[in-house]
């Protein structure tokens, strides 16, 4: 089956073909976090979905050029920096750092670039775009000195969100309570400096001010990826107005359509039926969950296992299920390694297991439930083989097959090498066994178990592996 995705723009499943004439390079832009606090795992549902998408595209032979922005200037970052009495950059820096750490813990591939909105070159790009929009009468400076996008001049406005803006389109000039705008739907491209902005602001042809959030993404995407992108992602809350505005700005400037060929949006992570969000206070950060004893890959699995367009409920049971599924996976891998090592590894050659069911399921708009269903079905099958005994070569073949799947799932335990202390304890246990001191040997095994390691006695000696939790 051809690779296909559900495009928010058309509301249809469409076959995927990148713009690259050679069909190899995929230009992908993903809206990143606003760095005024630590991202919560609701945000990470979006980033894990984007990671699955990138990894699957790579597994299918595409070269993905991905950009993820960091929003480091907006109302919330300014408020935080003022409350903390810190310059904006100093206030946001630790949250950027924390974000990179969380990406690593969740095994999310690093984007090719993480541009931050306040970098001079992007501020310059935003100012240049706004100037072009004004020249084309797609934007205007209002009496409040801010610059707004004139949505009435962009007939496609509303098409991504499938909003009928007709009823919002008044004949005369409308004054909203907040702004001096021509139309209530006009959005800010440049926000004139106000008292509460403190020392945050840049010089511009329209006076001191700062960019609006939407123009940040258009400018960074186009500076780094060009005028047209293949894929743009985010959570469904980004569709309107953020992504709608990005289309209006980018196409308004470049004159090229479409700005984005495939729009992919993930449904929210919910807590008791409501979106997990900072403002509702119903959120967990990754460190919160790590402190409760869950691992990064357990959290990754729990966010990954439901189709990206289906809402996902965050529950502790969900995390427990993730733990159990991973334990099954770990136990299977341990058995395969044991079988593989039992023979002469050099003498055998793995035969590729041709089964492609996992990737084929993902080709269908990232159908992860079908893909995982297939994986666990194959694990059952291979466990049956292990029960009856398999040779080294067959075990290696399964491991090679898993390696291909893991390049997409990134769920294999990374801590597979025991540290020095563990090695010393295992050696001592081997000596105890050598002197038939069973009591000591058992005590050391229990101690190793308690530290998260399993130890097994094989004909080649001890095998120390990460402990598989039941
Ligand atoms: P923000 O920092 O609020 O701009 O959000 C960053 C990214 O996380 C955006 O793509 C949002 O759509 C996404 N996001 C925020 N909350 C959730 C949630 N509860 N579930 C899934 N995605 C979310
Ligand atoms: Zn964005």
Compact summary:
The chain has 470 residues and is α/β, with parallel strands linked by helices.
Features:
470 residues; alpha/beta; Rossmann fold; 3 domains; four-stranded parallel β-sheet; four-stranded antiparallel β-sheet; 15 strands; 44% helix; 14% strand; elongated; binds adenosine monophosphate; binds zinc ion
Report on the architecture of this protein.
- 44% of the residues lie in helices and 14% in strands.
- It starts with a strand and ends with a strand.
- Helix 2 packs across helix 3 and helix 10 (357-363) packs antiparallel against helix 11.
- Strands 4-3-9-10 form a 4-stranded parallel β-sheet, sandwiched between helices.
- It is elongated and about 90 Å long.
- Strand 9 (229-235), helix 6 (239-254) and strand 10 (260-266) form a beta-alpha-beta unit.
- The protein has helices at 41-59, 75-83, 88-105, 120-135, 213-225, 239-254, 286-291, 296-304, 316-342, 357-363, 368-388, 392-409, 420-434, 438-450; strands spanning 4-7, 12-15, 25-30, 63-68, 139-141, 147-149, 188-192, 209-211, 229-235, 260-266, 269-271, 274-275, 312-313, 453-458, 461-466.
- The structure holds adenosine monophosphate (AMP) and zinc ion.
- Zinc ion is lined by residues 31, 217, 242.
Structural class: alpha/beta
Q: Separation of termini?
A: 37 Å
Quaternary status? single chain
What's the architecture of the largest domain, going by CATH? 3-Layer(aba) Sandwich
Q: What's the domain count?
A: 3
The main pleated sheet reads as: 4 strands, parallel
Our count of helices gives 14
* Rg, Å, rounded: 27 Å
Mean pLDDT: 92
Number of strands: 15
Order of helices and strands: EEEHEHHHEEEEHEHEEEHHEHHHHHHEE
Identify low-pLDDT runs: 170-177
Residues in β-strands, percent: 5-15%
The helical percent reads 40-55%
